[in-house]
Amino acid sequence: MSRWEALRRRMDLSAPLTWLSRRTTTQLASALAILAAVALSGSLVITGRAAQLDQRQQAALAALADFAAIAVKLPTDVGMDAASMTEADAAYVSAVLTAFQDGPDREATTLEETCRTGRGGAGLRLVRAPVGKPAGLAALETARATRLTRLGPDVYLIRLVPGDLCLNRAVEAVVVRRSVGALEVTVGRVVDPAGSAWRQAVLAVFGVGVLILAAGLTAATFARRRLTAALAKVSKALDRAAVGDFSYRAPEVSVAPELTELSRQVNRTLDRLDELLTWLRDSADQLAHDFRTPLARATARLDQLAEAGDARMSARLIGEARQDLAEISRAMTEAMALRDGEAWSFESVRLDTLAEAAVELYEPIAEQRGVRIRAEVEPVTVLGVRSLLQRAVANLVDNAVKFSPDGGTVVIRARSAVDGPILSVADQGPGMGMANAGPDSHGMGLAFVRASLRRHGARMTIDDAAPGTIVTARFAR
């Protein structure tokens, strides 16, 4: 595996995205709340570290100021070299340091206040002379120390455990260790662990956290109500569709943007169901009309057959009844084929080839009545079910030949247009000029043709050819 391939796999986000896509809204909201809590805790830790560093820096500056003031105010009449210094000199210098750091004019916290409250600012000192005992807090010399090089070469952070300075409290101190003549002087200040900056930072972060929490809860409540309202409208549209009312649609905007695509999909589905049910009603009406006429004729002829005594008339009536029953069988076959769609195997179908095949099929029938039938075609292809389109074209030609007068002409055209392929069948029959004539009055089979074309995304129009009728199928490009 190459280095780039390994890097790509490490950066692959498909697993996290898959995990997110499988979570519920409540789980995602909980995860976001946990992340917010972690982020808030992290900000508190960072703010605390910054405040702690600030307090140490202030203690270091105070200790350096103390050391500078002490170095200036040390008595000049006291011998500072190791050879001439006495124990009395060392005790005198220690007394001077004590008076300087604990004087009544200083604002520093006393050691008693530090041990009682934990506040910082109290002064610490230790003086070691060549003679005598060290004066001051001995723990400043033995406690664990960390050099603070950023604040100076002689500045240290010292941690005093309980018992070093306070009986029951551990404290931190920043000290300065330097030599003044023969003296080793350590001067420091106790670090305030909860300084004003830290308290203000905690309050600020806490306030921001409360605002974020309140805003999040408000937004979550608003989003939940909005989502619930949107779902209620979608559910209302589905409930009304379930009882056959397709007049109501789910709003696609201004309710819940999260459900816009779902609302559109539901509305598209309802539109499609409404279209299919409309087609089903129209087809049922047309089939009932198509069945009623041949059934009535067959029934009448059977009644005549029962009364007829002439063998020739009986044979004629039997033949006509068989034709009526054959028409019923053909209509049933077409309805079943349209329902099943013959597996709806779509392929490229040449309309010009279907037109020429229909001419060849109906030409012998047309010649018996002197009807001329011809094809005016150019190569044009559509995507569809070959058998359904072939049956639809055959129905159109069958109607045209049936309603054409003797000696009339039927023309089948197939061509390409700007908006898509077109197939038309024109005859010279009665035409559509009658005011009360509807599209389905032009003969049987047009309901099947219209339904088949709609299944292929095409539309059928019927116009007056003056004389005759022209039925046009327009396919989308």
Entry keywords:
alpha+beta; six-stranded antiparallel β-sheet; five-stranded mixed β-sheet; rod-shaped
The assigned structural class equals alpha+beta
| Strand neighbour order, sheet with most strands | 2-1-6-5-4-3
Order of helices and strands: HHHHHEEHEEEEHHHEHEEHEEHEE
**Helix fraction bin:** 55-70%
Structural Rg: 51 Å
Overall body shape: rod-shaped
Distance between the termini: 48 Å
- The total count of helices amounts to 12
For the biggest sheet, the summary is: 6 strands, antiparallel
Low-confidence segments: 433-444
Summed over residues and divided by their number, the pLDDT gives a mean of: 75
Number of strand elements: 13
Beta-strand portion reads 15-25%
Could you explain the architecture of this structure?
The chain has 477 residues and is of the alpha+beta class. It has helices spanning 3-10, 14-21, 25-73, 87-102, 111-117, 139-142, 196-242, 260-307, 311-340, 351-368, 386-403, 446-455, and strands at 123-128, 135-136, 144-147, 155-160, 171-180, 183-190, 347-350, 372-377, 381-384, 409-417, 420-426, 459-464, 469-474. The strands form 3 sheets. It has a 6-stranded antiparallel beta sheet with strand order 2-1-6-5-4-3. It has a 5-stranded mixed beta sheet with strand order 8-10-11-13-12. A two-stranded antiparallel sheet has the order 7-9. Strand 12 and strand 13 (469-474) form a beta hairpin. Helix 7 (196-242) packs parallel to helix 8 and helix 11 runs antiparallel to helix 12. It is rod-shaped, with a radius of gyration of 51 Å. The protein starts with a helix and ends with a strand.
